[in-house]
Design brief:
By secondary structure, this protein is α/β, with parallel strands linked by helices. It has four domains: 19-85 and 517-567, Roll (Urease, subunit C, domain 1); 94-216, Diaminopimelate Epimerase, Chain A, domain 1; 223-302; 309-500, Metal-dependent hydrolases (TIM Barrel, Alpha-Beta Barrel), CATH 3.20.20.140. The protein has 20 helices and 24 strands. Helix 12 (337-350) packs across helix 13 (361-377) and helix 18 (465-474) packs across helix 19. The longest helix has 20 residues, at 3-22. The two termini are 45 Å apart.
């Protein structure tokens, strides 16, 4: 062969190889979609191609054909909407699963219904068993008063009863439970908690924050088998809502070990970004050994510590700078500075992310002060990660003077939009109109340049991302109700709300280059919706349904028959 011919042939071969390498073949293609990518450089598309667990192409129906082979599964989504997988940035994973097995009091519309559910549930229990549950909310009842042990005793007297309020910061127990725990009028309030009393000075069955542990510590711990069942139930629930990643807001060492076992067996698909619950073995292990990142093919990362510093607004445990408008209290701080600051400082040094629960304006100021102190005392060159991306979970009531400090210090306000529409019915009574402009102030945070990682706090709330999306950009309850002083100007745009639940959540976990948008090279975590959340009328946004959930290129939830769409 002549030298010139040989050169031409080699050029052709190399050219062909170049074409092949630039057009890798897909295992799965979604096409004919309305794709909102949450990628500013390529915001809208019609098709996406996936190889393995990674996105390899985002663009037009025509151009995606270059990534198709005889082995490629192609799904025509028929004009449905495709978005990145939802990231719930504040989720109690085991709590969501446990809700499936416990007495669920969510949605009770009266004290009578609450007691009827309790009585019926107790008939399923054996002698000596605890009756546990959660979800009651007196604000949904005609008479907005907390239940007490007297009402519980009338329904169930022979079994110990422990029932969490929806916010998880107050519990009501019956006399049997108080007796088992040894809680009587002589027991002093623990630091960071309160035992509410009746007019005779006797415990009335209502326990706030750390006082809850006086009774809950006597409830037998769930077996490993039950913990696995809780995890699998939470996994299924999250996938049905299009949630592909959760930021778990505080679990213990043994729970994390249960997840590792389930991941190793291929039984869990939802990705978990974990905050170890302080204090405890998981925190000690993390600070001693460092973060565990990207375990089980990027399904589990453990790199944060969760501390709860105050209570909730509804149970009047949130710590306020001034007293509640409807009670002679300013709430409570659960821990002293000297108890938690060493952990915050050590985390800042070692590249461990802090996530501190703070709802009231006094609590938010306290956490900002402690973060600022740690970052001043730990210089940049002494930190394993220069920008620790510490978080404040909830950040519900923030004084105007403290709002700019989030951006200045690089603190992320991790917020749950549905809290605003849940608290809508009592927050003004708790705070008064004059403080409401400092509540649930999403617009103020965004306008000063903050990202808001959006979550649900499930099982405090339902955990449905479309309710969170609706709450963020409509700022009314799901009946369309609002009220004077609720500051509708604080709502997010739809684009911001979607970012909050995807890309901003990824950023809050140091994973913005891994997930959070439909972008070439990122993990193929996708959701197909039955309606376009950017165009659906606002009053029906919360009714949008998830049709398909894809994690790492695999269909893990399918409300449709995808096989009928594949060709």
């Amino acid at each position: 062969m002549r030298k010139g011919a040989r050169a031409l042939m080699m050029g052709a071969i190399l050219g062909l190889a170049g074409c092949q390498s630039s057009n890798p073949k897909a295992d799965l293609i979604l096409q004919n979609g309305v794709i909102h990518t949450v990628d500013e450089s390529n915001p809208h598309a019609e098709a996406v191609a996936i190889a393995g667990d990674t996105i390899i192409f985002v663009g037009t129906n025509q151009d995606v054909e270059a990534h198709r082979s005889a082995a490629t599964r192609v799904i025509d989504v028929q004009g449905k909407t495709v978005i990145p997988g939802f990231i719930d940035s504040h989720y109690h994973f085991q709590g969501v699963g446990k809700r499936e097995y416990d007495l669920n009091l969510d949605g009770c519309t009266s004290l009578d219904e609450f007691l009827s559910r309790l009585k019926n549930w107790a008939t399923k229990k054996s002698a000596g068993e605890w009756v546990t549950g959660r979800g009651w909310m007196e604000e949904d009842w005609p008479v907005k008063q907390f239940p007490t042990r007297r009402e519980l005793d009338a329904a169930v007297a022979d079994l110990p009863v422990y029932l969490n309020r929806a916010d998880g910061h107050m519990a009501v127990v019956n006399s049997k439970a108080l007796q088992i725990a040894g809680v009587n009028r002589a027991i002093a309030n623990p630091q960071g908690g309160e035992i509410l009393k009746d007019e005779k000075g006797e415990p009335n069955g209502l326990l706030i924050d750390k006082a809850m542990e006086l009774v809950s510590n006597h409830i037998p711990t769930s077996s490993t088998e039950m913990q696995e069942k809780y995890a699998l139930a939470a996994n299924a629930r999250a996938l049905s809502y299009g949630i592909t990643t959760v930021h778990d807001a505080g679990s213990i060492f043994d729970t994390i070990e249960v997840w590792k076992s389930l991941y190793a067996q291929g039984k869990m698909q939802v990705r978990v970004y974990e905050f170890a619950r302080w204090p405890g073995k998981a925190v000690d292990h993390l600070l001693e050994n460092g973060a565990e990142v990207g375990l089980f093919n990027n399904h589990l990362t453990i790199r944060g510590i969760k501390i709860t510093i105050d209570g909730a607004l509804g149970s009047r445990g949130a710590a306020l700078l001034e007293k509640y408008s409807d009670e002679n209290t300013s709430g409570l701080l659960i821990y002293k500075d000297e108890e938690i600051y060493p952990t915050i400082k050590a985390a800042t040094e070692k590249g461990i992310q802090m996530a501190v629960h703070a709802i009231g304006d006094a609590a938010n100021r306290k956490v900002l002060d402690l973060y600022e102190r740690a970052m001043n005392e730990v210089p940049l060159d002494a930190r394993k990660i220069r920008e620790p991306r510490h978080r404040i979970e909830h950040a519900q009531i923030v004084h105007a003077d403290d709002m700019p400090r989030f951006k200045t210090l690089g603190i992320l306000p991790s917020m749950q939009p549905s809290h605003a529409i849940g608290d809508l019915h009592f927050a003004i009574r708790r705070l008064g109109l004059e403080r409401m402009h400092e509540g649930y102030a999403w617009r103020n945070f965004i306008d000063q340049g903050c990202m808001i990682p959006g979550g649900s706090d499930a099982p405090v709330e339902e955990g449905n991302p479309m309710i969170e999306f609706y709450a963020a950009c409509v700022r009314k309850d799901t009946t369309g109700f609002s009220t004077d002083g609720w500051h509708p100007e604080m709502k997010m745009t739809r684009d911001e709300a979607l970012r909050s639940m995807t890309l901003w959540g990824a950023y809050a976990a140091f994973e913005e280059n891994l997930k959070g948008s439909i972008t070439k090279g990122k993990l193929a975590d996708l959701v197909v919706l039955d309606q376009d959340l950017m165009k659906t009328p606002e009053e029906t946004l919360h009714r949008i349904q998830v049709l398909v959930t894809i994690v790492g290129g695999k269909v893990v939830y399918d409300k449709t028959d995808l096989n009928s769409l594949a060709f």
